[in-house]
Amino acid sequence: MTIISISLPDENVGSLERIQKYLGLSGRSEAVRASIKIAETEVREMEKLEGEVEGVLIVVHSKHNDHWISMLQHRYDYMIKTQLHSHLQNRKCLEVMILSSDAVKLEEMMREIYKTGKAEYVKFVRSR
């Protein structure tokens, strides 16, 4: 097994410890491995998408005055059929978007959301 060293902000350490406790794991390393498996499952689901896809994209972000999500929505407006913005507690915002797009463009949009590091929660639910 390879040993790596990583630096995490206190918030991430707290999250890691919550994951460890919730899953009943004996250490942080196990929590990191479980988190990677969960993230890998999400990536695999996105990689399976092909052709035209429709679904709901849910994003929660914490900075109401940061307009990155608005700029993203304008850049991908041709994909968005309906959108809803709602203010949550602690100045967080919820974005719900009904999307219809080519899978490649959706993956591009999702990567851009993740790259910003500003979304606390991102989930695409594909219609079947």
Walk me through this protein's architecture:
This protein starts with 9 loop residues before the first helix and ends with a strand. Strand 2 (80-87) and strand 3 (93-102) form a beta hairpin. Helix content is 45%, strand content 28%. The protein contains four helices and four strands, in the order H-H-E-H-E-E-H-E. It folds into two domains: 10-46; 50-126, ACT-like. Chain A, domain 2 (Alpha-Beta Plaits). It is globular, with a radius of gyration of 17 Å. It has a four-stranded antiparallel beta sheet with strand order 2-3-1-4, covered by helices on one side. The mean pLDDT is 92. The protein has helices at 10-23, 28-48, 68-75, 103-116; strands at residues 52-61, 80-87, 93-102, 119-126. Helix 1 packs across helix 2 (28-48). With 128 residues, the protein is an alpha+beta fold.
Gist of the model:
With 128 residues, this protein is of the alpha+beta class. Helices cover 45% and strands 28% of the residues.
Mean pLDDT: 92
Q: How many DSSP H or I helices?
A: 4
Q: Order of strands across the biggest sheet?
A: 2-3-1-4
Can you count the beta strands? 4
Shape: globular
State the end-to-end distance.
39 Å
Features:
128 residues, alpha+beta, Alpha-Beta Plaits, 2 domains, four-stranded antiparallel sheet, 4 strands
